[in-house]
């Protein structure tokens, strides 16, 4: 009981201006300690914003106090004028005193009525629990629900969202913005940073396992023989293999020229032991010369019979890969053996590391081909969007559809953020903070009520006197 009474006394002193900055800090400490727990989904910053008083809030609260004193002083002034005017009227001062008394009396009524109305928003007038007073602290949650429903019905409807976005013209504005080189550079840099971040977060082992499994499963599920056969058939028909043959024959010729003695020694080493050495040497020289002549002729003669034989072999092999069951089965068995080797699996797994390193390096280098192409694509896209109505319409339609989907699908979640946030605020502290923000303007209602009431009273008294006369 003592703690509650102390807290009430301290809060009353802060409201009437008697409490200093230390008392205000104490009230804030109570508000923070008594504030409800942060509900799920409500940002902590939103709760802190309504449970703490900033320096700006304190300055606004001092302004409210000054305006309260001004409005109350005006009420006391018209009350004093009323007393003096009635005394003068009773003392025979004349008809003027009656007019002044009527104006002052109506001013008091207007001031008291508006004081009651303004006070009833934030607390019970004079501490009396009159019905329909202290509206903000007692109806805070209902106000939050009403505010959420109002926002949902008037700001999150499909028609409103589409109309607003269509009026903005996002497609043309975005196009004009992207068409500027500095903006394209900025977007490229942001995309590069996002790409680097994503690749850094991803675990290499997980990606390698996924890539290896995907490649192996895809290779196992699809027969490769017919595909290789079709590709080989097209290569042979187009003569694409001839460059490979030229390269192999040319390298073979050069190798034979540089390794003549090794070739002849190999031939002599394979001869029977009973043959004379000079015969073995002659045979080795003869075999080497014939082999060199064959390779030279094959290199220099595009129409060499060996080349034709190779063409026919490749053509037949391409056909067998597509139609011969045994050949296709042998290729599949070879594929399975190759994929099953550990070296191949390691190669597949390490491919991700190489690709990731390449992409990260390209994303970090401002002059890399990747970033230059992305920048050029953004500039081209921006230029097209800025002048092509059809493309602008597509972008606007996509943005409108995405926004409408979000607001229609998550409207309840969006409005519940407002409702839950208001519900999480401490009623007493929220009332004080709202009063600090709008109370100064509300005090003008009291002043206006005093002035308007006085004028209305004077007018009524004048009309009554005129009709009575």
TrEMBL record:
The keyword Transmembrane helix applies. It comes from the Bacteria. The chain crosses the membrane at residues 69-85. Residues 1-41 are annotated as: Disordered. Keywords: Membrane, Transmembrane, Transmembrane helix. Pfam families: DUF445 (PF04286). Residues 1-16 have a biased composition (Basic and acidic residues). This is DUF445 domain-containing protein. It comes from Streptomyces cupreus.
